[in-house]
Design brief:
This protein has about 230 residues and is of the alpha/beta class. It has eight helices and twelve strands.
């Protein structure tokens, strides 16, 4: 089915995670399950999801921080928090972090499914991230990892395409180094940071035929793709 809706579920309680995953699959959704916040952020970058379900209490990166990072890259992504916390201040914090909805454990699967359906309708979702980005004289095809410049095709590696996709989706905005590292490598170690600089240099080289395009280094913060 072409229009399958993909959901990213991040839940560290594996039993609950499997139960939710099974129920969502039975309802016709495709589900990717991650067990911690960093793994979830990495999975978000790898996949093309239409909705996120995040537990709040997660190892490595909590649900609130995860939602904030997802929002930096895709401000339209529908997000529902799953949590044992029912205090008002937690809900307020959740909505501030970018949640569209909040469901308190224990909950019925019927309720969760109804909330997902309502949110997908509201977001007009079948919200798909764009497959092709126009960058000046270049066309960047996200799915094929190709850069097309006046009919000349350059095939990118997976990591090159992942980095360019993040920058292209946030064209004109500064994207933090740490965010790119966590989304593409799953961790922001010094070694990965050096690799990222090498990839940025390569991308600049690939885009040099159009002088109106630049990938700017914002010292100590991150990068911005300007056209």
């Amino acid at each position: 089915m072409e229009n399958e809706i993909k959901i990213l579920l991040v839940e560290d309680d594996l039993n609950l995670g499997f139960v939710i995953q099974d129920n969502l699959k039975q309802a016709g959704y495709k589900v990717h399950l991650s067990q911690d916040g960093k793994e979830g952020l990495n999975a978000f970058n790898e996949g093309d999801f239409q909705l996120c379900l995040f537990d709040v209490m997660l190892p490595k990166k909590d649900g609130f921080s995860l939602a904030e990072d997802v929002r930096k890259v895709n401000s339209e992504m529908p997000i529902i928090f799953l949590t044992a916390k029912s205090q008002t201040e937690d809900k307020i914090k959740g909505f501030k972090a970018g949640a569209d909805d909040y469901i308190t454990k224990p909950f019925s699967m019927d309720e969760l499914l109804l909330r997902i359906e309502a949110l997908l309708k509201r977001s007009g979702s079948l919200l798909k991230s764009r497959d092709v980005h126009q960058l000046g004289e270049y066309q960047f095809n996200v799915n094929n990892y190709t850069l097309d410049h006046k009919g000349e095709l350059k095939k990118l590696t997976k990591k090159e395409a992942d980095i360019l996709k993040i920058l292209a989706e946030q064209k004109g905005k500064v994207v933090e180094r740490e965010l790119i590292l966590n989304m593409v490598w799953g961790d922001d170690s010094y070694f990965n940071g050096r690799s990222l600089d090498v990839f940025i240099t390569k991308l600049r080289k690939y885009l040099k035929e159009d002088p109106s395009i630049s990938i700017n280094n914002i010292h100590g913060v991150g990068f911005s793709l300007e056209v």
